[in-house]
């Protein structure tokens, strides 16, 4: 019920026919946060590595030239395509059904956005969220894979994530890159953390 009351914060055009699966209700990035992330990540080519039902993908497509939306669940990709059509941006998006880890060697982009499954709402029970809990692979493996695809990475994570681990990730680049930890609030409530690595950490665009 609480997710239903939040539906317009997830998609402002919800009443125009937005489709979501059960996981989408608790995993879609609130639209106001997705808009801000898209502004920070605005680039010729952006990859949304775990697109889900398209919340972030749509906002990227509104501000970037081309978006590659990847998800291994065909139903999620079908919903993401449908939702992107409602927002009028499906023509800027390549929708790909597949495993990001398998596709990564053939991918290149200016920015890659990582919002992998956090493990459901249960993650909030932990005082500090360890990125090894990310699914389907731990955060270090994911980041190592992503940094071969793009020199700029945006990583969307739980609000209780271990901040020291986020610093460690910057050292996986050779040489290490700059990073910026950003707290994401909705209605004065801390919802999540976004970490920017590379040139996108330097300023808002």
From TrEMBL:
Catalytic activity: a 5'-end (N(7)-methyl 5'-triphosphoguanosine)-ribonucleoside in snRNA + S-adenosyl-L-methionine = a 5'-end (N(2),N(7)-dimethyl 5'-triphosphoguanosine)-ribonucleoside in snRNA + S-adenosyl-L-homocysteine + H(+); a 5'-end (N(7)-methyl 5'-triphosphoguanosine)-ribonucleoside in snoRNA + S-adenosyl-L-methionine = a 5'-end (N(2),N(7)-dimethyl 5'-triphosphoguanosine)-ribonucleoside in snoRNA + S-adenosyl-L-homocysteine + H(+); a 5'-end (N(2),N(7)-dimethyl 5'-triphosphoguanosine)-ribonucleoside in snoRNA + S-adenosyl-L-methionine = a 5'-end (N(2),N(2),N(7)-trimethyl 5'-triphosphoguanosine)-ribonucleoside in snoRNA + S-adenosyl-L-homocysteine + H(+); a 5'-end (N(2),N(7)-dimethyl 5'-triphosphoguanosine)-ribonucleoside in snRNA + S-adenosyl-L-methionine = a 5'-end (N(2),N(2),N(7)-trimethyl 5'-triphosphoguanosine)-ribonucleoside in snRNA + S-adenosyl-L-homocysteine + H(+)
One of the Pfam families matching this protein, by short name: Methyltransf_15
SUPFAM superfamilies, A to Z: S-adenosyl-L-methionine-dependent methyltransferases
Gene3D superfamilies (alphabetical): Vaccinia Virus protein VP39 (3.40.50.150)
Keyword field contains Transcription: yes
InterPro entries according to UniProt: RNA_cap_Gua-N2-MeTrfase (IPR019012), SAM-dependent_MTases_sf (IPR029063)
Key word Ion transport present: no
UniProt keyword terms in alphabetical order: Cytoplasm, Methyltransferase, Nucleus, Phosphoprotein, S-adenosyl-L-methionine, Transcription, Transcription regulation, Transferase
Signal peptide span: none
MF terms in GO: RNA cap trimethylguanosine synthase activity
Highest rank taxon of the organism: Eukaryota
Biological processes annotated in GO: 7-methylguanosine cap hypermethylation
Subcellular location field: Cytoplasm; Nucleus, Cajal body; Nucleus, Nucleolus
Family of the protein in this entry: Belongs to the methyltransferase superfamily. Trimethylguanosine synthase family.
Function: Catalyzes the 2 serial methylation steps for the conversion of the 7-monomethylguanosine (m(7)G) caps of snRNAs and snoRNAs to a 2,2,7-trimethylguanosine (m(2,2,7)G) cap structure. The enzyme is specific for guanine, and N7 methylation must precede N2 methylation. Hypermethylation of the m7G cap of U snRNAs leads to their concentration in nuclear foci, their colocalization with coilin and the formation of canonical Cajal bodies (CBs). Plays a role in transcriptional regulation.
Name listed for the protein in its UniProt record: Trimethylguanosine synthase
Organism: Selaginella moellendorffii
